Amino acid sequence: MTEITAPGTDAPADEATGVFVDHRELLFGIVYNVLGSVADTEDVLQETWLSFTARGGGAPLAGVDNPRAYLVRAAVNHALRRRAAISRRRETYVGQWLPEPLVAEDEAGTADGPALRAESVSLAMLVVLESLTPLERAVFVLGEVFGYPHAEIAEVIDRSPAAVRQLAHRAREHVRARRPRYEARPRVRREATERFVRAALGGDIAELMEVLAPDVTAWTDAGGKRRPASLRPVHGRDKVARLLTSGRGGPRDPVWRYRRVNGDDAAVLFDGNAPFAVLVLDLTPEGDRVSGIYVVANPDKLTHLMEGKA
């Protein structure tokens, strides 16, 4: 987490920094869900804090009746500007791109720091949100995830309430078309994850075929730096099973640990003490088969995982 240090020691700036810190967890949750990147979120929060503490000629709180609203508006607009840079990076990214996962430090899902405590949607939902326009995504996150009414969202993004309603409608319809309402119960998800890991780790193709749905899809994001990975999503039970049991480029000393990833039960693969990949599963409505597999193995997206945490 980026450390916040106030420029100088004057009381107004110190007070403004305290106000910012009080709202940091909320700001992190909103910006992360808009961007899908921990590193970019931290940069946006730093930009937000700098612009907040620098305003008003050294009196940042002067004329600010609602610091929360001011900070949310500033953070969202910094995030929307950052989306352009992220889109440019995506154009030259090697292979598939997945959001940077938020991983809790232990199996119970407890975490230290706003980067892990912040409210966030599932990794699979973040993938769906990538297909929205930046404004649609911001409206969806503020309205559907954080419960902001249209009138307040309109002030945040400087649009009319009518325009916000249209953006919200388009975003909801798009998400509903691509993301079923069904969410597996935590116990079902954990059991399915453990069964999948046992089959994949043991190279048991027969067991994998039982676990995988016929139309399963696997997304692997390694940034061109690790194998096995595919430059495109892999569709179908046979192809996915072969990908998972290829045995090419895996860790020499594999250790699986179960964690909460973006609020869902999931698994993290370590090579000794170093994080190697994060695995998140989507399940069929019955909860007995795996319909989607998301593997984040790009080491640049795993730097915030604590090494050696059991």
From TrEMBL:
Gene3D superfamilies in the record: 1.10.1740.10, 3.10.450.50, Winged helix-like DNA-binding domain superfamily/Winged helix DNA-binding domain (1.10.10.10)
Q: Is-annotated flag, keyword Ligase?
A: no
Name the InterPro entries for this protein. Answer: ECF_Sigma-70_Domain, NTF2-like_dom_sf, RNA_pol_sigma-70_dom, RNA_pol_sigma70_r2, RNA_pol_sigma70_r4_t2, RNA_pol_sigma_r2, RNA_pol_sigma_r3/r4-like, SnoaL-like
Write out the transmembrane intervals: none
Pfam families on file: Sigma70_r2, Sigma70_r4_2, SnoaL_2
NCBIfam families per record:
sigma70-ECF
Record-linked PANTHER family: ECF RNA POLYMERASE SIGMA FACTOR SIGJ, SIGMA 19 FACTOR
**What does the subunit section of this Swiss-Prot or TrEMBL entry state?**
Interacts transiently with the RNA polymerase catalytic core formed by RpoA, RpoB, RpoC and RpoZ (2 alpha, 1 beta, 1 beta' and 1 omega subunit) to form the RNA polymerase holoenzyme that can initiate transcription.
Family, according to the entry, reads as follows: Belongs to the sigma-70 factor family. ECF subfamily.
Name of the protein this chain belongs to? Sigma-70 family RNA polymerase sigma factor
Organism field: Streptomyces koelreuteriae
- Lineage of producing organism: Bacteria, Bacillati, Actinomycetota, Actinomycetes, Kitasatosporales
